[in-house]
Design goal:
The protein is built from six helices and six strands; from the N terminus they run E-H-H-E-H-E-H-E-E-H-E-H. By secondary structure, it is of the alpha/beta class.
């Protein structure tokens, strides 16, 4: 059965601890996209990752043990969530997906968060994914834009779509609405 999974990114600890702000799995466009997919008959999970301000791959993987990653699964990863999905697909090479969308893909090149980004990217991921799309915004940080281009070059099947005015795809950054029709179109077409 077709399903979707959205993996949130990494907030600062201060933002995460602020009781007035939504938790990462409820923030920005994630819930809105999940509800829109649900209306289209696609059940969507948005797991709350443990200690998202200091991501640990094994902890995040354990948090997704009940998530179905199959050939009819649509996966979206935002920022560190994109990095998590790339590592998952690079280490668990039996996983096939219908679609993978990497939104503002983050990579911890400096190792600031331990071993979260320490893995060898499987450049053959695109062969196990029906469609692989990278979404980047022209007004995001140069590091995110460079990583998006690096991934496009490393994974031959990847399609890079550059949007303008989305920042890091976070409300309050430059994104003005929880609506994200560009992502919905990629997922349901």
């Amino acid at each position: 059965m077709r399903n979707a999974v959205i993996i949130h990114g990494k907030p600062t600890k201060e933002r995460y601890d602020n009781p007035e702000l939504p938790k990462p799995h409820e923030a920005n466009w994630l819930s809105s996209v999940g509800m829109e997919l649900g209306k289209k008959g696609i059940p969507t999970k948005i797991p709350a990752m443990p200690k998202p301000y200091f991501p640990d791959y094994d902890d995040w993987r354990n948090a997704t043990n009940d998530v179905v990653f199959e050939a009819d699964t649509l996966c979206v990863g935002h920022s560190a969530g994109a990095e998590f999905l790339l590592r998952l697909l690079s280490t668990e090479k039996h996983i096939e997906l219908e679609k993978l969308v990497l939104v503002a893909p983050y990579a911890d090149e400096a190792g600031k968060y331990g071993g979260f980004s320490k893995y060898i990217l499987d450049t053959q991921i695109g062969r196990r994914v029906g469609k692989l799309t990278i979404l980047s915004s022209l007004d995001d940080s140069s590091a995110i834009q460079q990583n998006a281009h690096r991934l496009e070059q490393a994974i031959p099947e990847a399609e890079l779509i550059e949007l303008d005015g989305f920042g890091h795809f976070m409300l309050g950054n430059t994104m003005k609405s929880t609506d994200f029709p560009e992502l919905i179109d990629i997922l349901v077409q």
